[in-house]
């Protein structure tokens, strides 16, 4: 008997902002800063001191860290040898992955843990792809410095020169995104295993102590998840936060703070992500008019929806929609 398997519509965004392979000399520093993106940083050789919200981590060759959005950090190459690294900044609007990625301010994988994943293969593939793109860009030899190693040739950007901006074609962009997504997946698998181990230990500890072992951080996560569930089931973000605040005997500002700590964004920003996903699904999955979609999502007018959608994506709803011959003619000009 044949079985038909149906999957739900899945639309979410992975934003990739900045990717580099670089070498920094002894004594190099990067000042204290923060950003609203996740950051993956892999130390290829040498080492660097990462100061993350007052806590120092010495990132050694073969190790990786992932920082959640909004975390203040700075770096210093304290060693007497060059520090070679790969890093990438990204954002993702899938709520389950964000919950997994924002449990801690920083996730640190040592060399042995990294070797147990496929991360090194994906980083190498990404570097080879960027090398190919650099060759296509016809940059002069004084702009690109090659450092030969036993295994591969690494691209190093001279600090005295301006940054090189690559413009990838469609197929190469797909390959690039594919490697980054596979890297994110590997990190997610490691964090999922950690989360499962921690949850199992907490359950065991609580059984032995009559349930008295749950700390404040676990309560905060529970509160944040309840707010997140209400946000997904409601278009009224303020109402959801206020309702949880009343139930938990907390102030509205406390709920906002807890949610932001766990999810790396405010409830209002999270609600915007939900609306963006819903808008994308509506635009891709059916031929409803823009007016109907705007009303369905709770916008006061088509122009308000169009302006907000363009802020989110950089294009208008009509530009985002696939152009199949004769399909959306009735919506042109809206």
How would you characterize the overall build of this protein?
A five-stranded antiparallel sheet has the order 1-8-3-6-9. It has 334 residues and is α+β, with helices and mostly antiparallel strands. It has eleven helices and eleven strands. Mean pLDDT is 77; it is low at 140-161, 201-216 and 324-334. The protein has helices at 95-101, 111-115, 119-136, 170-208, 216-232, 237-248, 252-263, 267-285, 290-296, 302-313, 317-320, and strands at 14-24, 29-33, 38-45, 47-52, 55-60, 64-67, 73-76, 83-92, 106-109, 144-148, 153-157. Strand 4 (47-52) and strand 5 form a beta hairpin. The radius of gyration is 23 Å and the shape is globular. Helix content is 46%, strand content 20%.
Q: Could you spell the SSE succession in H and E letters?
A: EEEEEEEEHEHHEEHHHHHHHH
> Which band does the percent of strand residues land in?
15-25%
If you compute it from the alpha carbons, what radius of gyration comes out, rounded to the nearest whole angstrom? 23 Å
Shape: globular
Helical content stands at: 40-55%
**What structural class should be given to the helix and strand makeup?**
alpha+beta
How far apart lie the N and C ends? 47 Å
Number of helices: 11
Number of strands: 11
């Amino acid at each position: 008997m044949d079985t038909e398997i149906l999957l739900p519509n899945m639309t979410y965004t992975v934003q990739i902002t900045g990717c580099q392979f670089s070498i920094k000399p002894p004594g190099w520093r990067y000042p204290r800063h923060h950003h609203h993106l996740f950051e993956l940083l892999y130390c290829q050789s040498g080492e660097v001191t990462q100061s993350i919200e007052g806590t120092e981590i010495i990132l050694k060759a073969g190790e990786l860290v992932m920082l959640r959005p909004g975390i203040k950090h700075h770096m210093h190459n304290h060693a007497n040898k060059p520090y070679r690294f790969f890093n990438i900044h990204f954002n993702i609007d899938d709520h389950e992955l964000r919950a997994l990625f924002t449990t801690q301010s920083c996730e640190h994988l040592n060399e042995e843990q990294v070797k147990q994943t496929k991360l090194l293969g994906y980083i190498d593939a990404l570097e080879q792809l960027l090398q190919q793109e650099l060759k296509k860009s016809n940059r002069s030899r004084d702009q690109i410095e090659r450092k030969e190693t036993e295994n591969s040739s690494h691209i190093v950007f001279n600090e005295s020169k301006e940054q090189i901006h690559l413009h990838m074609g469609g197929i190469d962009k797909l390959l690039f995104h594919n490697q980054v997504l596979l890297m994110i997946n590997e990190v997610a698998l490691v964090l999922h295993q950690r989360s499962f181990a921690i949850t199992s230990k907490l359950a065991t500890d609580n059984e032995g102590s009559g349930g008295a072992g749950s700390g404040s951080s676990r309560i905060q996560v529970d509160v944040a998840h309840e707010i997140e569930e209400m946000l997904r089931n409601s278009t009224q973000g303020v109402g959801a936060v206020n309702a949880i605040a009343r139930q938990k005997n907390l102030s509205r500002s406390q709920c906002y703070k807890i949610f932001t700590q766990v999810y790396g964004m405010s409830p209002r920003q999270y609600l915007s992500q939900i609306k963006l996903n819903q808008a994308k699904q509506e635009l891709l999955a059916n031929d409803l008019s823009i007016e109907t979609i705007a009303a369905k999502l709770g916008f006061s007018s088509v122009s308000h929806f169009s302006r907000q959608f363009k802020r989110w994506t950089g294009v208008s709803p009509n530009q985002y929609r696939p152009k199949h011959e004769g399909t959306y003619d009735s919506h042109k000009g809206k």
